[in-house]
Design brief:
This protein has 288 residues and is an alpha+beta fold. The protein has one domain. Helices cover 16% and strands 27% of the residues. The strands form two sheets. Strands 2, 4, 5, 8, 9, 10 and 12 form a seven-stranded antiparallel sheet that branches. The longest helix is centred in the middle third of the chain and has 13 residues.
């Protein structure tokens, strides 16, 4: 008869080969060498020919929607002060296809920068945007293990805030994004909320503590003029919230932090610079 380890009190005792088990070599889950490479020359040439066609400012503790036609660039920047933003992206004509932070994290990293792509959810699973420039790419990883532009957090939301603090706060990024999408699409907030998804935390500096491995945030290194820029690989509808946490150096989901507007610009390249560009197609997988 097999002995029950829980009943004899040995369930949490380290085995004699514990060191060997922990020493197993890590294996990258997804080798991405078969994916189309980041074509620096193409994106650079297209961007040089582009002119600004949209300028939008996102007020502090609010969100706004914006449209980016495929083949155009869009830039998010801090023009007024250090400020974190929460970004949602959808295929412009089909809200069921949207940014998928989890798969993006698996294919690239916990924090994104130039050359990384933002992937859409299943069953579509394709790059819908490519990061083409990032003024904070110098930051890398700091001594706390933190990086910039994370896809490990979700977005501050009123439900978690209420659970933790027993109060209602209406300008969490989740709420801001919901209202912005409802206004843009002319739908109810209840319907809009079903389309709000996990975000790219633009300019946010985050990581996991080395002892307890808890998610943490620290002051964003972004300063006036810092930016991150993307290329729209399909027609996009974006929503960006200027987080109520400001630079996230102390708090979020409150009116305590100093917050600044965020700026969104769309740049349209000359048509001939896109002659060699082919949009990514949706996944060809066919379920049985």
């Amino acid at each position: 008869m097999t002995k029950n380890r829980e009943s004899d009190g040995t369930a949490n005792v380290s085995p004699t080969d514990a060191h060997e088990r922990r020493a197993a070599k890590p294996v990258i889950c997804y080798a991405t060498s078969s994916l189309p490479p980041f074509d620096v020359n193409f994106y650079h040439t297209a961007r040089v020919s582009a002119t600004r066609t949209v300028l939008l400012e996102i007020p502090p503790r609010e969100a706004r929607c914006f449209v980016v036609p495929e083949g155009c660039f869009f830039r998010i920047s801090c023009q007024h002060g250090s400020q974190v933003g929460d970004l949602n992206l959808w295929q412009r004509d089909d809200l069921s296809e949207h940014f998928f932070s989890g798969k993006t994290r698996q294919l690239h990293a916990t924090h994104l920068t130039t050359g990384d792509r933002l992937w859409s959810n299943m069953p579509y699973l394709r790059p819908i945007a490519t990061i083409t420039d990032d003024s904070l790419s110098w930051y890398g990883w700091d001594d706390d293990g933190a990086g910039i532009h994370d896809v490990i957090g979700t977005r501050c939301d009123p439900y978690t805030h209420n659970r933790l603090h027993g109060e209602n706060y209406h300008h969490c990024c989740h709420s801001n994004l919901t209202r912005a999408l409802a206004d843009k699409r002319g739908i109810s907030q209840k319907d809009a909320e079903t389309h709000i998804h996990d975000v790219l935390n633009v300019f946010m500096c985050t990581g996991f503590t080395k002892d307890s491995h808890q998610y943490f945030m620290k002051a964003s290194p972004a300063r006036k003029g810092d930016y991150i820029e993307f290329f729209a690989e399909t027609d996009l509808l974006g929503a960006l919230s200027a987080c109520p946490g400001g630079d996230c150096s102390s708090t979020h989901s409150s009116d305590d932090a100093q917050c600044y507007p965020l700026t969104v610009e769309v740049f349209t390249p000359e048509k001939q610079s896109l002659d060699t560009w082919q949009p990514f197609q949706r996944s060809e997988y066919i379920a049985k």
